[in-house]
Amino acid sequence: MRKKRFLTMERRDNYKGYLFAAPWVAGFLLFFLYPLSQSFLLSFSQIRDISIFQFAFQGLNNYRNAFLQDVNFVPLLMGSIRNTLLNTPIVVVFSLFIAILLNRNLRLKGLYRMGFLLPVLLGSGAVMQNLRGNAAVVDFTSGMQGASSGIESADLTGIGLTQQLTMMLGPVAAGYLQTVLNQVSAILWMSGIQIILFLGALQTIPVAYYEAALCDGASEWEKFWKITLPLSMPVVLLVTIYTIIDYFTHMDNSVMVYIIQVSFADFNLAYGSALSWIYFLFVSLFVAAAFLLMRRHVFYMGDK
Amino acid sequence: MRRPTATGIRLRSRLPDRESIGNAYQSARKHAGRILLTGAIYVLLTEFVFVFVFPYLFLFINSLKYDFDLRNINTQWIITRLNTFNYAEAFARMNYLEGLRNNLVVALGSMAGHVLSCSLIAYGLARFRFPGRNLMFMAILLTIIIPPQVLLIPLYIQYARINWVGTFLPILVPTFVGFGLKGGLFIFIFRQFLKGLPHSYEEAAKIEGAGYFSIFFRIIIPMARTSILVVAILSTIWHWNDYFEPTIFLNRSTTLLFQRLGTISYWQGVMTPTGAYINPIMLAAIVMVTIPLLLIYFIFQRHFIRGIEFSGLAN
Q1: What is the pLDDT, as a whole number, of residue A51?
Q2: A181 touches chain B (CB under 8 A)
Q3: Of A110, A149, A163, which is closest to B259 when you measure between CB atoms?
Q4: Which listed site, A154, A199, A270, B237, has its alpha carbon 20 to 30 Å from A120?
C-alpha cells in the first residue's frame, strides 16, 4: 500500500532497521562470506599440494564428475530427499501434538518436558551415536585430530542397545520392535527441539482468546483450528524449515556422511566441496519451496 | 482430582455450559470423559517419554555397576553392589573441574551473545521495512543451511593467522554478531516470535518519544520473554553438546568435557552376556558430562512454565 513517494516519517524510520542489521552484516562478511567464497573456489579446482593448501583451477570438472561419474552421489541424494519429504510432515505434526499435550497443566509437567528433551540434552552427536551403536559420524573427527586428543572412534562404538533389546524381548519381537523403533525413535529423537519451539509458541497465545472462545461455547477441536493453529503458524513455518534443514544437514544424513568421507577420509577436499555445493543448492530449493508454499497461510499478529 | 486445566477449561468448569445446566447425568458423563481423557494423556505421554528416557536410564544404571553385575546374565536393571569408583575414576581422568569450567564459559558466554545479538537483529528484521531486508533474511536462511563443516578450513586458517586457535574466541566472538553455532536459526526464531507481537505498545512508546533502543529493551524484551528462554535453552544445550567446532578450535587446557571423553579408553570395558562391550567408567563420564546441563535446563525451565501467566498480561 504505497501512499506517498517521498520519505514519510514511517519510511524514514524504516531506515533505522539498518542500525540493527549492521552487526549481522559485519559478521556475515567476516565469518561467512569469506570462508564460503573460499569453499566455492575450491569446488572448481583440484588439489596440487595439500600441505600448503595449493590448488589448481579446473573448471566444472568436479561438478560433471558428481553427476556423470560418481555412482554413489545421485542415489544418496535421491534417498535423502525422499526421507526428508516423508519425515518432515510427521515430525511437525507429532511435535505440535506433543507440545499441546505438554502445555496442559499436568502433574510432573517438568519431568515430562525433560523426558522429551533428553535426546537433545544428551547430545545431538557423540553420546547419541554411542547409544545407538554407530560410530560412523565421529570417525572423521578422530581422523583429523589424531589419537592424542578429540574423540577416538573406538570409544564410541556402541554399548549395544540392540542386543539389550533382543535379550529382553526375544529375537522375533525384538526384530519387529527394532524396525519400528528405527523409524519411530529416529523421529521422536529428532523432535525435541521442535517440541520446545512449539511450547514457546503455545505460551505466547493470549489466554484472552481462549476465554472469548469459551464464552461462545467453542469445543476443544474448534479452539485448536480457530485459535491455536492460526496463531502458531509463524512457528509452524519455523519448525518446518528447521526440520527440513536439520534432516538434510544432520551428520547422520547419508549424503553428509558421504561428503565428509570424500573430503576428510579420502582427503579430496575439492571434490567434496563441489558435492556440498550441489547438495546445498538442492536444500535451498526445498527450503524456498516450503517457504513459498506456506507463506500464504502464515499470519503475523504484528503485521500491519 | 485436579481438573485438566488448559487455562480455558478451568474457566469452563466454573461456568456451567448452556446445555448441561440442570442435567446432572450429562455433567457426570462429561466429568468421566474428562478423567478418561486426562488418563489417556498421561499414558500416552509416559509411553513416549519412555522411548526418550530408556537409553539414559540404561546408561545410568550400568555406570553404577561392578564387573560382576555387568557380566551377570540374570540382571539388567538390578545393582547388587553400588560402584561409585567409576565416577571417581572418570572425574580424575577427565580433569573434570577444568573441563566443566571451560564448558560453562563456552555455553553460557555464547548463550549471552546469541540472546543479545540475535534478538536485536531479528527486531530490525521484524519491525523495520528497510530495503534489502528480504535479501538479508534469505542470506540468514543460507547461513543455517550451510553447516559449519563447509566453512571449516578457511575459517581455521583465518583464526590461526590471528592466533585465536586454542582460545575460546573462535567460538564466542561470532555469537555476538549473530553467527556462531546455529546463530542464523536463533535470528529466525526471534523473527518469527517478534513478528507475532502486537504493535500497539511500541506505538504508544513512540508517541511518548522513546528511542528505538529503549523501545527494544523496555518493551520488546519483556514481551519476548518466551522466545528469549527458547533461544537461551537451545543455545546452551547445543554449545554444551557441540563437539565439532571445539575439537577443531580448542586444545589442551581449553578442551570441553565432550572432548575429554576421549581420555577414557573403550577397551577397558566388560563383555556383557548380550555380546556388547560396556565400559562403566565411560558411562559414568557421560553421565557427569550431562548432569550440569540437566541442572541448567531445570533452572531455565522453571521460568518457561511461568511464561503462561505472563502472556496473558502482555495482551
Answers
A1: 63
A2: yes
A3: A149
A4: A154
Residue type, B57: L
pLDDT at A183 over 90: no
| Runs of H (alpha helix) within chain A | 9-14, 17-27, 34-42, 61-68, 73-102, 109-121, 126-132, 136-145, 161-169, 171-189, 192-203, 207-215, 220-223, 229-249, 254-260, 269-295
Q: Is the pLDDT of residue B108 over 90?
A: yes
- Chain B interface includes A173 (CB < 8 A): no
Per DSSP, B224 falls in state: T
CATH class of B95-263: mainly alpha
Question: Which of A105, A149, A206 comes nearest B6 by C-beta?
Answer: A105
Could you state, in order of their start, the residue ranges of all structural domains in chain B? 7-63, 95-263
Partners of B198 on chain A (C-beta within 8 Å) are 301-302
Closest-CA residue of chain A to B300: A110
The H or E element containing residue B39 is: helix B24-63
pLDDT over threshold 70, residue B295: yes
Query: Please, which residues have CB within 8 angstroms of residue B3's CB and are 6 or more apart in sequence?
Result: B9, B10, B13, B34
Domains of chain A: residue spans and CATH: 54-295 (1.10.3720.10)
Q: Does A130 touch chain B (CB under 8 A)?
A: yes
Reply yes or no on whether the pLDDT at A128 is more than 60.
no
- Residue A240 is predicted with a pLDDT of 94
Chain A residues with CB inside 8 Å of B264's CB?
155
Which uninterrupted H or E stretch holds A57?
Answer: strand A54-57
Instruction: For A42-68, write each residue's pLDDT tens digit.
Output: 788 776 666 666 667 777 778 888 788
Distance CA A242, CA A92 (A): 10
Average pLDDT over residues A121-128: 58
Which CA distances in Å does B143 have to A89, B137, B241? 23, 10, 20
